Fold:
Amino acid sequence: MAKEGRTARQSDIARLAGVSQTTVSIILTGRARENSIPQSTQDRVMAAIRELGYVPNAAARSLRGGRNGLIGVHTYEAVFPVTSEDYYNEFLVGIEEKAVEMGVDLVLFASTQGADGTRSIYGSGANRLRLADGAVLLGVERNDDELERLASEGYPFVFIGRRDTVSSLMPYVVPDYDSALRDVVTQLKDVGHGKLAYVGNRMRNNPQEDRLTAFTRHAELLEIPTTTPQFLSPADLDTDRVAQFIKDDVTAVLVESWELAVALSDAAASAGIAIPGSLSMVCLDIGPRSLAVDNWSHIQVPRRELGRRAVALLMDLLDGRITNDHHELLPVTPPSFATIARPRPAPTSATRIDG
Structure:
């Protein structure tokens, strides 16, 4: 065991796992397979590493011949996005595709999850990501303190998304929501919409705020009247609320999430308000594959390409081709006209809206 107050060494790992220090070194440098190290031995060594909180010395590893060819993936979400229905699965697919193309291996840092379901890079007291040359980080849950600490240590990482307080400290790749909302608002204006409503999620994070900011800016630039943005849960988006849109002369509603889109669609149907005949709708995201979202007008966030680009940027960072202040925007596919229609003339008091 490592003495209290002393950083664990490979010799400590070797003693705890009952193997030679050479075996530990081979496993840590990713050469276990070529040296025919049994999986059971690898498992014992990795268990010892976790128990001791061992952090590889990056400088020493560089002197031994450079990188180990391992790229880490860490998510702040409660569950790793391994199922096809998970929103973040497409990011992971893109990460894997690009890793294969570039000839590097992936390490999914599942052990960063704590007993309460949250994930922390430093949950064991040490930076678990140092087992890899660098890492791709993703997830809407916030831990800006960890990102600041990671950057201060000089550990190479790329974030999928943007964080206001730490954006200058790390490379990131993010959807171009400003251009996307410009296209959406322009599209609605071009077919004659004269008043727009915006319904956002109650939980506010950078992606949601970026969309709202872009919507507000482009509605003002195009001189299209809007109602005050509403931040609702799906349960709040009921028939009364949809009927109020009609009373307020709103002709199109933009919703931030597919959950809100489902709620709006159901409430409109219950109220006898046809979409898009009486009210157009645009969803500013996309839901699970099992949901028939192609029946709705929605933007298409390039999730797989974001994953691919994050890996490419990480390799550029490791090779010194970019610096920590490198930021990229990826284009977002504009919506179809599935639930966008030319607005009907405003009904008179004697006109019944029956869809």
Notes: The chain has eleven helices and eleven strands. The chain has two domains: 67-170+301-332, 177-298.
